[in-house]
User: What shape does this take?
Amino acid sequence: MPTEVILPKVDMDMATGQISRWFAEEGAQVKKGDVLFEIETDKAAMEIDAPASGVLRDVTGKEGVDIPVGAPVAWIYADGEAYGTKQDSAPVSPLATKHDVLSTAGSEAPPFALPGISPTRGEIGQSPSGARATPLARRLAREAGLTLSAISGTGPHGRVVKADIDAAIAKGGAREAPAVAPEAPAASAPAVKAMSDDQVLKLFEQGSYELVPHDNMRKTIARRLVEAKTSIPHFYLTLDCELDALLSLRTQLNAAAPVKKTDKGEAPAYKLSVNDMVIKAMAMALK
Assistant: This one.
């Protein structure tokens, strides 16, 4: 039976992913552990290995297309195995299996809270102010605007009863202070709205630029940078530094970088930036 190759979940928040590049083509002979394709998520790119050895068939996962996690992207047929039509794969159901249901039968269900009902705190018959009172006395005190904690109860265990409320009303007992309306929060300044793509393009002369579509990772980086710039207050500190020696060293190191072959031709194995040098200096200073 052929082995199904699926799009794995490589990130906790990952629902879909894109195949940025296939390393094996339809009909290619692959071995278990060989790199089949590269997944691109919002955070990183990851190489996916072949789960079995054989011939790669039915490559349905297209490059640059959003694919749901767990969806089949190809099949691997063992050597000598008859190749038929495209395999159908039923989606994995999130429902519990029969074994899962039977294994929980007879176990005690955990306690749960009824919706809309909060647990009772304190002793029944005790008002939020701490005074003990019967439900009727609490209602009468609330209607009369009396403070229960200022009334001496004559009921059992010093509980305030209806007679105590009537006596307090007759004597003109302590009234509750009127509730102070909370001040309305100051209206915050509206966030600066980011410019649209059309507005940005109008800043440049037609034909002086080339539109290159971003991958998912670049889109996420750009979106978060714009959010940080437009929604978080910024202040800037400047400091003048002489970096002539640093820039000279950077040029020498980049020139000495070994050359590697890529799908786009030869390229340096690394390219150091000024930021790399600053991080190195900070690490040395913190030792």
